[in-house]
Design a protein that fits this description.
Length: 398
């Protein structure tokens, strides 16, 4: 019997030349912003050239938005018609929240560990008598069905959870939570911002109802664009109060006195689409698809093990999960109130990491090497020593 062929390992050196910043900087802040690639720069130049040569090229521009929509759909195993194009995840949450109540239900369950815009969006959408929001809390950052179920009620419309925590990178079991929500007659919305690009995910296999994600992190795009998948049989049930002219059946009908909703995910589109960001998004996602997300995921897990082992060797505290199969790409290291100072100290010395509250997040990607990790951890120890010499920057000088 012929043994199965091993999956090819990712070779980061094959991609590094496509990211000019890597010639002089170690970029491990991908959980906040991915680096600019030559692919994205070329896409931006194409948009600029269309302005210079044509002045107004709406058919071309809207076509690029459609291509970006399709690229995102391929990434998550969806059809392009089931994806909305928005400007940010805040818009996505707000437009769904504006549908409350739906199916005669007005209760939303989410967690205290969501990125703030998510919880804030539900609270804003529930104001008055339109809804009510409950926040689940976990001691370890994981939200299994047994922890969530007591929060669900007969009037729960929706459960909203992150796929990967922005703070500790704890990874949730979306399929199990979808089953739980559906057993209680509720929907599941997943925020996949900290996952997509380094974690393979299929919306049909996981049975999620709604998925939201921006494009500037592991998808290697720019700020200003986000995507939202809505399960096709669900779209027609939702009537958003937050809307725009591109959410119409025919945006170019130009009838201000008539409101209709386009079929599928496009009903959640807002105003004029984020065109320049769509050029960048399409190019960034094509690069991710070229490398292959499962391949990227294996590479990142290998580097995560190295980060954690190196952190332990250097007496650095790990703030999140130790099992790489239960976490996203980032590894959070608890450094205290000086996290922002440490981030800036490292940046000035050619290492980009990302501070959040009391942690520094080290987030590799397809172009990251083992040498990058070793150097970054060594620099962090130097930063820690410099902080000890200079004193706590959060404390006032005496």
């Amino acid at each position: 019997m012929t043994p199965p062929m091993a999956e090819p390992a990712l070779r980061p050196e094959e991609y590094r030349s496509r990211f000019p910043i890597l010639a002089h900087t170690i970029h491990l802040g991908n959980c906040s912003q991915g680096p600019l690639s030559l692919d994205v720069r070329e896409a931006l130049e194409r948009y600029q050239q269309s302005l210079l040569s044509e002045g107004m090229a709406w058919e071309t521009w809207v076509g690029e938005v459609q291509e970006a929509r399709g690229e995102f759909a391929r990434l998550i195993g969806a059809a392009p018609d089931d994806v909305a194009v928005l400007s940010c995840v805040s818009d996505a949450i707000s437009t769904i929240a504006s549908c409350l109540p739906f199916r005669g239900r007005r209760h939303v369950v989410t967690t205290v560990d969501e990125f703030p815009t998510v919880g804030q969006g539900w609270l804003a959408g529930a104001r008055g008598d339109r809804g009510e929001v409950s926040f689940a809390r976990s001691a370890d950052g994981f939200y299994p069905p047994a922890l969530i179920e007591p929060y669900l009620r007969s009037d729960t419309a929706l459960l909203s959870v992150h796929l990967v925590s922005y703070y500790t990178a704890a990874r949730q079991d979306a399929r199990a939570l979808a089953q739980l929500a559906h057993d209680h007659g509720a929907l599941l919305l997943v925020d996949a911002y900290q996952a997509l690009g380094t974690l393979a995910f299929d919306v049909r296999e996981s049975d999620v109802d709604i998925l939201v994600c921006g494009n500037l992190k592991y998808l290697l795009g720019l700020p200003g664009i986000a995507f939202m998948y809505v399960r096709p049989e669900l779209s027609a049930e939702l009537q958003p109060a937050a809307t725009g002219w591109f959410g119409r059946v025919n945006p170019f009908h130009f009838d201000a006195t008539h409101l209709d909703f386009a079929p599928g995910g496009r009903r959640f589109d807002m105003g004029t689409p984020p065109i320049i960001a769509a050029y960048a998004a399409r190019a960034g996602m094509r690069l991710v698809r070229e490398a292959g997300v499962p391949t990227i995921e294996r590479h990142v897990q290998t580097l995560s093990r190295q980060v954690m082992a190196g952190a332990i060797e250097r007496d650095l505290e790990i703030a999140g999960p130790l099992d790489v199969t239960r976490k996203g790409a980032a590894t959070a290291l608890r450094v205290g109130v000086a996290s922002a100072w440490l981030e800036q100290w490292l940046r000035a010395r050619g290492v980009i990491v990302s501070a959040r509250a009391d942690v520094l997040r080290i987030a590799p990607h397809l172009f990251t090497t083992r040498e990058d990790i070793t150097t970054a951890l060594d620099r962090l120890v130097e930063a820690r020593d410099a902080l000890a010499r200079e004193g706590d920057p959060a404390q006032p000088a005496r």
